[in-house]
Amino acid sequence: MIAQAQAQPHAKKRVLVPTMGALHKAHAELIHVAREHAGHDGEVAVSIFVNPLQFEPGSDYERYPRPEKADEEFCQKAGVDLLFRPSVAEMYAGDRSVFIDASSLANTLEGRSRPGHFRGVCTVVAKLFNILSPDAALFGEKDFQQLAIVRRMVRDLNFKIDIVAVPTVREEDGLAYSSRNQYLTVQERKQAPVLYQALRAAANAGKKSAADVVAIARKVIGEAPLARIDYVEVVDAENLQPVERVGLNSVLLLAVFFGKTRLIDNIRLS
Ligand code: PAF
């Protein structure tokens, strides 16, 4: 049975999967890994909240999918113990005035294209941590920058919470699962696997120059006529700053538009 109310103080180990709903296979994997971390005696909590603070003006906040009934059934089937689905009014006071900013890690990549996004993410994640008091929380590696920033926030603000990274879950053709994939037209969906093809081609070429790695990825993406590149970059996985030479800790990240839909993905280069 899924508890719907705000969490009470808890004696059991609690593992949180924070989400914005529209749950899919990648969330099922997060919940599965959360169960392993919680153990038989622990509990798995899922939060579903489409967080207005992390959507920049003019983006898809209004049209973001909110299949409430299907999400609830999904959680029930997945054996979730606690489902937390607050309203915007419950989460944010009208005169809110304190936020969490991530500064240096948030000014690159996604942060450059989506100003204010990580301020919204950090603020809501911190609030979820305070409300639900999890012992551990799981984040997918697809949102690589988000994961790095949440880890940094936990370190810098002394949250006593283990952050667990879960590898990206992909469809058979390599496209990373995302709630936004459902926006793609049939033609865009056909071309979207080019992202993972580009990442793999670039990673497998064995190049040491970051510029060469980026050039390979750009060339592969360029073969998909509907793809419009936002960024393709090689950065250090810890500080997210660009690198010139590929090292053990390098990661290749990209964001690409198909029509109005912006997809992100990444691959480790080590
Ligand atoms: O990755 C997401 O779904 C969201 O950014 C998160 C972590 C649930 C915060 O709103």
SS elements, strand count: 8
Separate helix tally:
9
Annotated CATH homologous superfamily of the largest domain: HUPs
Count of the domains: 2
Indicate the low-confidence ranges by residue numbers. 1-5
Based on CA inertia axes, which overall geometry fits?
Answer: globular
Strand order of the largest sheet: 3-2-1-4-5
How much of the sequence is in beta strands? 15-25%
Radius of gyration: 19 Å
Briefly, what CATH class of the largest domain?
Alpha Beta
Q: Could you tell me the CATH topology label of the largest domain.
A: Rossmann fold
The CATH level-2 architecture of the largest domain is identified as: 3-Layer(aba) Sandwich
Order of helices and strands: EHEHEHHHEHEHHHEEE
- Give the CA-CA distance, first to last residue: 43 Å
What number is the mean pLDDT? 96
Which percent bin holds the helix content?
A: 25-40%
**Main sheet attributes: strand count, strand direction, barrel closure:** 5 strands, parallel
Q: Structural class of the secondary elements?
A: alpha/beta
Small-molecule binders: pantoate
If you had to describe this structure to a student in words, what would you say it looks like?
The structure is a single chain. The chain is of the alpha/beta class and 270 residues long. The protein folds into 2 domains: 3-166, HUPs (Rossmann fold, 3-Layer(aba) Sandwich); 179-268, Pantoate--beta-alanine Ligase, Chain: A,domain 2 (2-Layer Sandwich). The protein has 9 helices and 8 strands. The strands form 2 sheets. It has a 5-stranded parallel β-sheet with strand order 3-2-1-4-5, with helices on both faces. Helix 2 (68-77) links the parallel strand 2 (43-48) and strand 3. Helix 5 (117-132) packs across helix 6 (144-156) and helix 8 runs antiparallel to helix 9 (210-222). It is globular, with a radius of gyration of 19 Å. The chain binds pantoate. Pantoate binds at residues 18-20, 51, 54, 121, 124-125, 143, 146.
